[in-house]
Design a protein that fits this description.
The chain is mainly alpha-helical. The chain has five helices and two strands. A two-stranded antiparallel ribbon has the order 1-2. α1 packs antiparallel against α4, α2 packs antiparallel against α3 and α2 runs antiparallel to α5.
Length: 141
């Protein structure tokens, strides 16, 4: 009952021990047929997070959906709400139930963060991060 979506974060980094605990909770989420066809990326680099924001914005601008483009044009828009850590959860799209398994792991991440008195929020606009090769080309430079 205590978990809430937080959209304002302190600038201080999250303790490494807390991140380790959160990720241990993620990998202990239930999975269908014990497949564990998920992948977690923990990003703490401010430089990398800014590249992720730029790529997300660019892909939203090019999405052809006006309300998304409008959000991306707002200079204050940040799909990660200024969080010092971004954890992406992805899944093998060819594995049956992998998306459900990833969602269960994401919920464990949220609940673990709450138990550690850390704010968290599921963000869907980062789904635009990998909609093109923009992020990959930016992160190589």
């Amino acid at each position: 009952k205590n978990r809430r979506s937080i959209r304002r974060y302190k600038k201080q980094p999250v303790d490494e021990k807390d991140l380790q605990t959160i990720m241990e909770c993620a990998i202990h989420a239930p999975t269908a047929m014990r497949q564990q066809k998920w992948h977690f990326s923990v990003v703490t680099s401010p430089w990398m997070i800014s590249r992720m924001i730029e790529a997300t914005r660019e892909n939203m601008l090019n999405s052809g959906v006006e309300f998304l483009a409008e959000r991306a044009r707002n200079p204050e828009f940040n799909p990660y709400h200024g969080a010092p850590v971004v954890i992406t959860v992805s899944a093998d799209g060819t594995a049956k139930f992998a998306q459900t398994d990833a969602a269960l792991a994401a919920e464990n991440i949220l609940l673990a963060a709450t138990a550690l008195k850390l704010g968290s929020c599921i963000a869907t606009s980062p789904g635009f991060l990998f909609d093109s090769d923009i992020f990959l080309s930016q992160s190589r430079n």
